[in-house]
Amino acid sequence: MTLDLPRTPSFRLDGKRVLVTGASSGIGLGCAMALAEAGAAVTMVARGAERLYAAADAIRATGAEAQAQPLDIADISALRSFIAENGPFDVLVNAAGIARHSPALDTTEEDFDAVAAVNIKAAYFAAQAVARGLIAAGKPGSLIQISSQMGHVGGVDRAVYCATKHAVEGMTKAMAMEWGPHGLRVNTICPTFILTPLTQATFDIPERRAWIESKIKLGRAGQVEDVMGAVLYLASDASALVTGTALKVDGGWTAG
């Protein structure tokens, strides 16, 4: 008797064009590297030109394909123009995001608008622009938002940040429903506290680090590498039936 065994779908991204925002450091850089390692041609965007060019150079030095374009994604007109002129992109990884933490009673309108402009508005229109390009080209694709565990729970001094990430979770579900018939998958990745240059100051406070690690059931803070496998999975054919969902890379924080 001969069995016709199923085969694991490929995690390779050869021939795919990928756009990664917030790609100059931290999670965004990790995502760019993971997808480039898998064979994708990665376009990296971020506001800071010097660090962005250095990041793209470092990826190319490994033999992978990457190019850099300085861009403020909060400038929606510039964002739309760039994607329309350089797409279609098979994969979007929107890793750009900001946080301005404060007690909810002290939130200023300026801080609210600044966080919402990047975390919600730019995330929304980046997805829309990439989706338009793919639909016009008749191509399938994967759109990935780097959300947060705070898109599923609350956090002290994080009312604005939580609000934006909850919004990303909601719009992702709606977009997945609308764009599924076009072959587009839309998902989020929800990391816990990840040790990056931007979060180093928080981890440098012993009691703050102890509190974080006490909440993470696996007992350690996240590393950028913890997110890289998740983004590769959602970008590749390995997740061909996954859409409208949140992949929590949170060490069990939200399970409790």
Description:
- The chain has one domain (17-192, 224-249): Rossmann fold (3-Layer(aba) Sandwich).
- It is α/β, with parallel strands linked by helices.
- Helix 1 (26-37) crosses helix 8, helix 3 packs parallel to helix 4 and helix 4 packs parallel to helix 5 (159-179).
- The model has no long low-confidence stretch (mean pLDDT 96).
- It is built from 8 helices and 7 strands, in the order βαβαβαβαβαβαααβ.
- It has helices spanning 26-37, 49-60, 76-86, 109-137, 159-179, 200-203, 206-215, 224-235; strands at 17-21, 41-46, 65-70, 91-94, 141-146, 184-191, 246-249.
- A 7-stranded parallel beta sheet has the order 3-2-1-4-5-6-7, with helices on both faces.
| Tally of individual helices | 8
**Strand coverage percent:** 15-25%
Shape: globular
Radius of gyration: 18 Å
Sequence of strands across the biggest β-sheet: 3-2-1-4-5-6-7
Structure in a nutshell:
This protein is an alpha/beta fold and 256 residues long. Helices cover 43% and strands 15% of the residues. The longest helix has 29 residues, at 109-137.
Q: Layout of helices and strands, plus pairs?
A:
Layout: E1 17-21, H1 26-37, E2 41-46, H2 49-60, E3 65-70, H3 76-86, E4 91-94, H4 109-137, E5 141-146, H5 159-179, E6 184-191, H6 200-203, H7 206-215, H8 224-235, E7 246-249
Parallel strand pairs: 1-2, 1-4, 2-3, 4-5, 5-6, 6-7
